[in-house]
Design a protein that fits this description.
Helix content is 32%, strand content 17%. By secondary structure, it is an alpha/beta fold. The protein has 2 domains: 304 residues, Alkaline Phosphatase, subunit A, CATH 3.40.720; 237 residues, 3-Layer(aba) Sandwich (2,3-Bisphosphoglycerate-independent phosphoglycerate mutase, substrate-binding domain), CATH 3.40.1450.10. Strands 4, 5, 6, 7, 8, 9, 10, 11 and 12 form a 9-stranded mixed sheet that branches. A 7-stranded mixed sheet has the order 3-17-16-2-15-13-14, sandwiched between helices. Helix 7 links the parallel strand 5 and strand 6. Helix 3 packs across helix 12 and helix 13 runs parallel beside helix 15. The longest helix has 24 residues. The protein starts with 5 loop residues before the first strand and ends with a strand. The relative contact order is 0.21.
Length: 553
């Protein structure tokens, strides 16, 4: 056992240390778009008034992203929460690999390029089409296209998944039109390139945690088979759907670009395909669709072209999905889960499907499975397959049911859970639904806290990033909500740059330590692991960020 924790002078709390992640709940001033403040949340208000409250950085460099202009996300947030450290993350890794040329000298890139040159076939790019820098970045796509031309590739097709979630909800043409100009500059008699298909990210292709395989099936039929409603251009498709359906970009239906009634970019035997998202959760299922052979049984692929397929990263390091990838993921080591397992501390994790992977896979440093079958219990509660704004309470009551059982059982010393409401409902852009989601969450906090007191435990209540705290686009100069052409506030569906709360709920041991002030430390999500371990009665490993509490001497 290489990762044993040392006991501290504090014997540790009697009950469990429960880390509660209120996904997407940031700290922001009151305003017309702050669903957290607008909601009736007596329990959360009570906690913030009567218990130690600090704020944590949950974006940018605090979670390993390139700059503090980069919004955080649930994946990097849970990496930081679970590891107690800050690692260079997807966007930064990919950008560095491109800038240094390392990507283009990799065996995977070389094989992909040589394959299409040898076969006279097509190089396909598929992924989220924006600069949101959460799942992907359009600059990465542009750099790869330019390099492909430089290396003698003759035919390229691009399959675009429209965002409207990590960027403005109706910003698709702000990316499509300049990109079409970029392609026009590159296009020659020897370099045939165009957009071939697309659709909204919440309609096709980018499902996660196997919640809705029909999304992936739609994507397969669109991108691979070229089946679906045809348009002359992506611009025409977007404008037509907007007029017909009045939906935001993430909800735009699939479309196929065609000439003379024939799709311009089906995927055929001998082609190479690159999925250019760097974030893994919404990349795994489409990767399985390409990588798995006859054992694939999630939907009828109709036709399975023999291609070389690669992801931007390895999206699941344990299951090795996909088989080929362009950039090595960060090696996250010395995680809290590993240390606790090696020390013999019992652990439990629970969430619903939408965030189950976050309190397990991402919490454990992008590692599938448990560190110890004997000391760990993971519970997944199946998410509803309905639009989140239609059922904004999601499964928070069921998560609480399980959490209470875990606390009362006496089996576990370290428990973690995630309530997805603030994030998943916040992404819909519906202020009303998001406010209701916060009220549903608050009801569950009211159920949990008395049970923690029953067993003399402690709760650390925090979040992984902001979202519900800023439901309208904000003017950076004035701080006021932006208005659309119709005079109404413009909905915001992306994460925020706001800090997140950190509350220490403890009615038994507060005389044993002091909670450091925000000004004393530059606190971020990575400081939570050491805090939890300190409350368990152990010394945090030296490579972790410091604890937010300090034991009294």
């Amino acid at each position: 056992m290489a990762h044993i924790l040392k006991k501290s002078a504090f014997e540790g709390v009697k009950g469990p240390v429960v880390t509660i992640v209120m996904d997407g709940v940031g700290v922001a001033p009151e305003g017309p778009g702050n669903a957290v403040k607008l909601a009736n949340t007596p329990t959360l208000d009570f906690l913030m008034k009567n218990y130690p409250l600090r704020t944590l950085k949950a974006h940018g460099t605090a979670v390993g992203l390139p700059s503090d202009e980069d919004m955080g996300n649930s994946e990097v947030g849970h990496n930081a929460l679970g590891s107690g450290q800050v690692f260079a993350q997807g966007a930064k890794l990919v950008s560095n690999s491109i800038e240094t040329g390392k990507m283009f000298h990799s065996e995977t890139w070389t094989n992909l390029i040589e394959n299409v040159k040898k076969n006279g076939s097509t190089l396909h790019f598929l992924g989220l089409f924006s600069d949101g820098n959460v799942h992907s970045h359009i600059d990465h796509l542009k750099a790869m296209i330019a390099e492909a031309k430089k290396e003698g590739v003759r035919k390229v097709r691009v399959h675009i998944l429209l965002d409207g979630r990590d960027v403005g909800e109706t910003s698709a043409l702000e990316y499509v039109l300049p990109f079409e100009a970029f392609l026009a500059d590159l296009r020659t008699d020897d370099f045939d390139i165009c957009i071939a298909s697309g659709g909204g990210r919440m309609q096709i292709t980018m499902d996660r945690y196997e919640a809705n395989w029909s999304m992936v099936e739609k994507g397969w039929h669109t991108h691979v088979l070229g089946e679906g409603r045809q348009f002359a251009s992506a611009e025409e498709a977007i404008e037509t759907y907007r007029k017909e359906l009045h939906v935001i970009d993430q909800d735009l239906p699939a479309f196929v670009i065609a000439q003379n009634g024939k799709p311009v970019g089906t995927v055929e035997d001998g082609d190479s395909v690159i999925f250019f998202n760097f974030r893994g959760d919404r990349a795994i299922e489409i990767s399985k669709s390409f990588d798995m052979g006859s054992e694939f049984d999630k939907f009828d692929r109709v036709r399975t072209p023999q291609v070389l397929y690669a992801g931007m990263l390895e999206y699941d390091g344990d299951a090795h999905i996909p088989h080929r990838f362009l950039v090595n993921p960060p090696e996250i080591t010395n995680t809290m889960g590993e240390y606790l397992a090696d020390t013999g501390v019992t652990q439990a994790a629970v969430s619903e499907t939408q965030k189950y992977g976050h309190v397990t896979y991402f919490w454990n440093g992008n590692r599938s499975g448990k560190f110890s079958e004997q000391t760990e219990t993971y519970v997944e509660i199946a998410s509803d397959v309905v639009p989140f704004e239609q059922r904004p309470w999601m499964k928070c009551a069921e998560i609480t049911d399980t959490l209470i059982e875990m606390i009362r059982s006496g089996k576990y010393k370290a428990i973690r859970c995630n309530f997805p409401n603030g994030d998943m409902v916040g992404h819909t852009g519906s202020l009303t639904a998001t406010r209701i989601s916060m009220e549903a969450l608050d009801l569950q906090l009211a159920r949990i806290l008395p049970v923690i007191d029953e067993v003399q435990g402690v709760a650390l209540i925090t979040a992984d990033h902001g979202n519900a705290d800023e439901m309208y686009e904000v003017d950076k100069k004035t701080g006021a909500p932006k208005c659309g052409k119709d005079g109404n506030y413009k909905a915001k569906t992306s994460h925020t740059l706001n800090p997140v709360p950190f509350i220490v709920y403890d009615n038994f041991y507060a005389d044993k330590y002091m909670v450091l002030e925000d000004g004393e430390k530059d606190f971020g999500l990575a400081n939570v692991a050491a805090t939890a371990v300190t409350l368990l009665g152990y010394e945090a490993p030296s490579m972790w960020k410091k604890s937010i509490i300090e034991l009294k001497k």
